[in-house]
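Translate sequence into structure tokens.
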Amino acid sequence: MLKVGNWHEGTWFWLVSGIAVLARLSLWAVYPLTPNNDSPTYVQLAKNILTKGFSTYNATRTPGYPAFLAFVGDRAYSAQLLLGLLTTWLFFYLGWKLSGRAWFGALAALIHTLNLGQLFFEATLLTETLTTFLVTAALAGALAISTEKASFWELTLYAFFAGLAAALAGLTRPLFAFLPFLLFAFYFLLSKIPLRQRTTFSFAAILPALLIFGWWLNFVNTNYKILSFDTIGGFRWLNHTGEYFELVPDEQAIIRDTYLKYRDAKIAETGTQTNAVWDAMAELQKNSKMGFYALSRELTKISIALIRAHPDLYLKNVISGWWMFWWAAVYWSSDAIRLPALIPILRGLIFIERGVMILANLGFLTVSLAAFFWKKARTALGMSPFVWLALVCIWAASVAQTLLDHGDNPRYLVPLQTLVVVIVAWWSTQIYSVWKTNKP
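Result follows.
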């Protein structure tokens, strides 16, 4: 058994588990399950699944989180707290296997437990907690392939379940639809494994995505004539193109002018036009004489045409959204705290934690760019295949999210924020080790 000083891995595991349980019991005691503006849509779709299955499912949201809510029912809060604990355990495994040191596994688990941005989402009816668990499980499965001593068929099962978790992550948060394909490439490129085995692992990982994504895309396209993971893509595009919607040609003047009225009112009220389309929805349908799905298709066409005509304006938003991704926002409601005396303490902790996470994010960007372009940096950082996988996953998410949406971009990092900090912590140990070795 691996020894760390006088403590073996079990001691570290149960220590951080105790802290994780205590943190979640404390959250449960002082912070009730708190809905968000998006929560009612997930709850309604969960009820739809329970009563009518998918016969009338409107696909405004992918079915991963609604199906989860339908399954857990009134136990959503406790179920999400349990998922948070399981994710803590997964990070213990990731840190331990990545470093070969149980204390680093404990550090990784503690980083997740003390991530207030993640913890508050466990008390919110939104997709973040489930997505974080599924993405972390998929990455843990990938790490197992290169670290566990197991039979070929056991490793094939690891690859399959990692792919299943990745596919379910994509069905919960479409941003991560790329993850099964990333795992496919990761397994295939593991040069230390014989070609036949890594080919098997690759196809085992991609199979769940081919089946699940194929079924879902066919469902949406067959029922709503939209080849997408959801039916609201046209409305979401306006978070990008709405900022310059006055450039829409006169052929679509009715849609253009209706939206501009609501956009300008939203800017006057909040300073941003993000999600103004939802305020304009009823009048857009009325004036355009289009139903919900036809209007979504039409807005997609208009937006794509605008992007092609004005790529510079689109690129400006893309760069801005990419930068906002790294802001490490913490979403919570101070009004929901049952003990008002805790509010200033929590605000102080959140301020400090955001500062730490933003520094970690900037460190990740700087060091990962060095790893991409500087061979000596790659050697010093101990860039194992799993670290490369994590690095590519984070960068892919940062780019994909801003290409598709422009608004609440900091939320898209939440499922990966702990991973970013853990990778930076790992790099810090590597840099310290190199410094110590070369110290005169």
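Note: The two ends are 34 Å apart (CA to CA).
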